[in-house]
Amino acid sequence: MISKKAIALCATVGVAISGFAIATPAMADPVSNSYSIVGSDTLEDAVSALANGTGIGGSNVRATTAKSASIASFDATGSPYISTKSYGVRFGRPNGSGDGVKALSRSIDGAGYTSKAVGSPVNVVISDSVDIARSSSGGTFNAAGELLYVPFGRDAIAYAYKGAAAGLGTITASQMKSLYECSPGFQIGGVTITPIIPQDGSGTRKDFLANIGSSETGMKTVSEGGCVVEGQEHDATTLTAESVMPMAVSRWIAMNTGASYDKRGTGTIGSLVPNVDSPITGSGALMAPNPSYYADATWGRDTYLVVENARVDPTNVKYDPTLFALLDPTQGTSLTNAQTLVTKTGAAKKKYGFLAPTTGVVPFRVAKTA
Question: At the top level of its lineage, which domain of life is listed (predicted)?
Answer without folding.
Answer: Bacteria
